[in-house]
Amino acid sequence: MADDSLLIVEGVHLIREGTEILHGVNLTVAEAEVHCLLGRNGSGKSTMAYMLMGSGGYLPSGGTVLFGGRDITDATMTERARLGMTLAWQEPARFEGLPVLDYLRLGMAEPSEERVREALEAVALDPAVYRSRNVDASLSGGERKRIELAAVYAMRPRLAILDEPDSGVDVLSLSDIRDLFARMREQGSALLLITHRDEMVEIADRASLICSGEIVMTGEPAHVQAHYCDRCEICDVAREVEEAADYERV
Amino acid sequence: MSVSRTKPVFTQGDEFEAIVRSYERAGGDGKNLLSPKFASMVVSGNQVLSTHELPGLEMVAEQLSDGVAARVTVAPGTKVELPVHLCFGVLPERGTQRIVSHFEIGAGASVEFLAHCTFPNSVEVIHLMEAEVRVGEGARMRYSETHFHGEQSGARVVPRGRILVEKGGAYLSEFSLTEGRIGELDFDYTVDVAERGRAELMVRAYGFGSDRLRTVETIRLNGAGARGLAKSRVAVREDAVSDVIATTEGNAPDSRGHVDCVEIVRDRAIASAAPLVRVTCDSAYVTHEAAIGTVNKKELETLMARGLDEEAAVDVIVGAMLKS
């Protein structure tokens, strides 16, 4: 365990609807580190994200989660957020009637117009156009995801958990995402980047590979990426999850 | 008694000041009631405290035993640039105020009314609104009514509207009761829309405690190419009860209408919504959507992940929904 560890997950188990999803997960994320969590669909990535953020129904049945040296295993989402942790959902919520400007200001310790403008520009959205639009169904999926990233950026969290920020249409290009994350890191934010796209690893300082609810590898991004691409095949469990997802989409 | 003046005249200064203060609590800007740029009318109980007209806009008010009868006329072709401010209030804890109004918007005219109804000390105030509106050919009328009832037990509010929109005219209405206690709301507006006319009705209400809400919106698209939208945004919590009934009828060729009801329900509150569409012409097209549910978990958690506690997050979600 490095001295600069911001997040330490030790032996976390999590049970959902009678089935254990996470099996003694261990993970560390350092201050201002970009850490990529790779894994196939159904491997437990999003469950990890919800568990870390303290989402309802995702409290661990065993193990501990430390954040900034504090045990937050049983902390509420609000408590975690106020300690500097936040989560960007894979499919962000939509809020009828809530302007983008207000939405971005909600998470800012010291709300300012300048910070809102900077956040929208950081995700390649024109502040003049978007600040007064609502965070509702009038936004495309890509616009909504960009605004979610802008909200996280505006918050200046100590740790941002980003669940598949690169998925969907009309999202930022890889180079834009790289620039955004570099700016966040410069501002002192650590990022836990959850993805199944191996090219996202290029952005990371370190990477971990999750498989069937266990972290099976952590190390140099290129090394983990190579293992993921060469040896991590879709197992029966992941295949079933993917097929179920495809069925739901149909 | 008939009151019609061209400059603000205050018959009861203290009461006027009190009603202006209350008007401001209801979201109005008191300066607008004093400014000669704005047409306005201030009514307290059955007293007309002031009226201010503008060229082409006439407001004649008559005192009734339990309220005021007002006739508002906008001459054909008149474009009233700034909103007309209407302030209705009852300052005592108890009382009945009946406002009988007739709006006549001449052909090609355009006008916006901002009405603020305030009953800040209400324990048993009854507020009855009986409005008849005619929007002439090619005319446009927007009517926004906001209520403030104080934090005690609310009032009994019974707005009734019978609106006729003539060829190419437009009537846009917003009724908002989201601050303080509601008490009892029994809202019922019916709009008949002629050829290429347009009507939009919107009700926003936030009930709690023992509040009771019943809203009935009816739009009849009777002319070819008429357009209508009946929309409601309601939130109820604790032991409040809401009943939303919204109807749009497509009775003419190429008429288009939509009903849109959203309600958020929490605690022990009970909400019901009945969107009704009726079509009597095969080229008319009327749609509806209605949703009732508690606060969406992902919306709630998204705001909590930004540092809001649950109660604050609910307030943001409900507040935004009521503004949508």
Q: Can you give me a brief rundown of this structure?
A:
The complex is a heterodimer of chains A (250) and B (324). By secondary structure, chain A is α/β, with parallel strands linked by helices.
Q: How large is the radius of gyration of chain A?
A: 18 Å
Poorly predicted tracts of residues of chain A: 244-250
Major beta sheet summary of chain A: 6 strands, mixed
Helix content of chain B: 10-25%
- Segments of chain B where pLDDT lies below 50 for 5+ residues? 1-11
- Biggest β-sheet description of chain B: 10 strands, mixed
- How many extended strands of chain B? 20
Strand content range of chain B = over 45%
Figure out the total of helices of chain A: 9
Neighbour order of strands in the largest sheet of chain A: 6-7-8-3-9-10
| Percent of residues in β-strands of chain A | 25-35%
Secondary-structure element pattern of chain B, one letter each: EHHEEEEEEEEEEEEEEEEEEEHH
Oligomer: heterodimer
- The rounded Rg of chain B comes to 20 Å
Mean pLDDT of chain B: 91
Structure write-up:
The complex is a heterodimer of chains A (250) and B (324). In chain A, 36% of the residues lie in helices and 26% in strands. Chain A has helices spanning 45-53, 77-83, 100-106, 113-122, 127-130, 141-155, 174-186, 221-231, 236-249, and strands spanning 5-16, 19-30, 34-38, 62-67, 70-71, 85-88, 159-163, 190-195, 206-211, 214-219. A six-stranded mixed sheet of chain A has the order 6-7-8-3-9-10, with helices on both faces. Chain A has a four-stranded antiparallel sheet with strand order 2-1-4-5, with helices on one face. In chain A, helix 4 (113-122) crosses helix 6 (141-155). The longest helix of chain A has 15 residues, at 141-155. Residues 244-250 of chain A have low confidence and may be disordered. Chain B is mainly beta. Chain B has two domains: 5-296; 297-324, no CATH class. Chain B has helices spanning 13-25, 31-34, 297-304, 310-323, and strands spanning 2-3, 40-44, 47-52, 57-63, 67-74, 84-89, 94-105, 110-118, 124-135, 140-148, 155-165, 170-179, 183-193, 198-207, 212-221, 227-236, 241-250, 256-265, 270-279, 285-293. In chain B, the strands form two sheets. In chain B, strands 1-4-5-7-9-11-13-15-17-19 form a ten-stranded mixed sheet, with no helix packed on it. In chain B, helix 3 (297-304) packs across helix 4. Classes of the chains: A alpha/beta (250), B mainly beta (324).
